Amino acid sequence: ISICRDLPNIEVITFSVNGISDLEPLHQCQNLSELYLRKNNITSLDELFYLKTLPRLRVLWLAENPCCGPDPHRYRMTVLRNLPSLQKLDNQAVTEEELSQALVDGVEITAPPARRSVENGWSESTASSAAGSTTELLSCSLDETNKTQEELDMKPVSRDKYSSFSPQESDCSCKKRNNVLNAILLLMKELDAEGLEIIQQTVARRLQKKELQEE
Q1: pLDDT tens for residues 106-159?
Q2: Measured at the alpha carbon of residue 68, what is the angle toward residues 55 and 1, in degrees to the nearest 5?
Q3: Which of 54, 79, 105 is the last residue of a domain?
Q4: Helix (H, G, I), strand (E, B) or coil at 137
Q5: Bridge partners (DSSP) listed for residue 56
Q6: Are 48 and 83 in contact, with CB atoms under 8 Å apart?
Q7: Is residue 139 part of a domain?
Q8: Residue 212: how many CB atoms within 10 A of its CB?
Q9: Is the C-alpha dihedral spanning 75, 77, 78, 83 positive or negative?
């Protein structure tokens, strides 16, 4: 997710199911208001240190990460103590009572997580993250694609779209389509009206060409 260092004005990021373990690249995204990190490889709540500097962050989805731990209450209280401006956490609205309770039950994070030693430009945690990302992407499914679209209030993809593929072909196609779709949805948030119009025209031409080929 190092690309985020070059996107300081981005407002919505969805990186669900990507094997992510390090949130440091996000700390410069000062306009970020919604962040979806469901089902990644974030092992420590200390990673929240990098989100505490984001003044506009209002929505965070962090569920299904190792850092959530066995105690849901302690996890939620710790997140809210460090990010009191959140209005929604894990698709659940934040209440004033929770914010008050978080001051008592939550753990304040005052330092970034410790990183393992770096050798040849790669740290052990980075290598682990890359391996985790590969594992997660291999297990990707149509359900995950639809989950991402649900986060962005988009219409789910119909399973009928995949009916012409064999199980193996469908799985491979789904993984590729999911990755491309997520990237496009993310980058579209950075486009102005002119850029969106160019995309619309390009898609229209592609669709027309596709229909002619099928005929």
Answers
A1: 999 999 988 654 444 444 444 444 444 444 444 445 566 566 666 656 656 555
A2: 55
A3: 105
A4: helix
A5: none
A6: yes
A7: no
A8: 8
A9: positive
